[in-house]
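Sample intake sheet
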Amino acid sequence: MLPSLVTLMNGMAGFTAIFLASQGAGTAWELELFPETNLSFFALAGYMIFLGMVADMLDGHIARISKSTSSFGAQLDSLCDVVTFGVAPAFLMLQLVEAYSYYLRFASQDFTLIFERVVYLIAIVYVMCAIVRLARFNVESKSDDTHLGFVGLPSPPAAGVIVSVVVFHQDFLPRVSLWAAGIDGFATAIIWILPALTLLAGLLMVTRIPYPHVLNRILSGKKRLSTFLVILFVLPLMIWNIQLAMALGFCIFVLYGVIRWLLMSPSRRRKGTEARTEKSWERNLGGGI
């Protein structure tokens, strides 16, 4: 029951993020316990998706510790991931770009209409890629796998790229604009960049580019010196500014997988793809030929 409840918290966080994103940019939410805290609904929606990521990380570890991994848990996890890391980030991106599109200053109404339709299509492509990615993951993995790596960009980091940029735009830039000049132009540039990042993240989910499972690699086995140095750099950055740290972290992770794949020789790429395909067929046929 406990792993399933944690997984359902993931789905609940995704649904709450969709609800918050639907409220638009014209209102803000103030915490009674912290009067100085003033967050837009877009920023709150982003933080809810991050909360879903925490639940997504915990449910698998709880299931393995309690020795209660099952096919039901895997299917439930993927269904909740579709909501939290598929539908919610795409809807959040769509709402944010629509709300701030007047900053783009199009020459005519026709260009505005074309841009809005393109952004809508990008959101659809992202959601479809997330669904395909999660379905493929269920087919190619077992409940007892350690998951030290993934084929294609996992859905949580894909959502993290979108959400971290949204949170950076909504929660970091407004505070910086009080004492720094030129922030408005940077904020407008993010409105242009965000749909392109969404399309890139969606397409990377359905590729065969390998990505490491960062958390499982950190928690298992001996640690390299490079891992210690990365943690030593990331922790102070997160303490200083968590919004900037999340945006940099997710973008670097996405680029790391692409650059690493491009530096591989064609034979290594082909060999890795064939090995993963053969392993998938063996699992589907019941363990071997």
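Comment: Strands lie at 28-30, 38-40, 149-151, 210-212. Confidence is low (pLDDT under 50) at residues 277-289.
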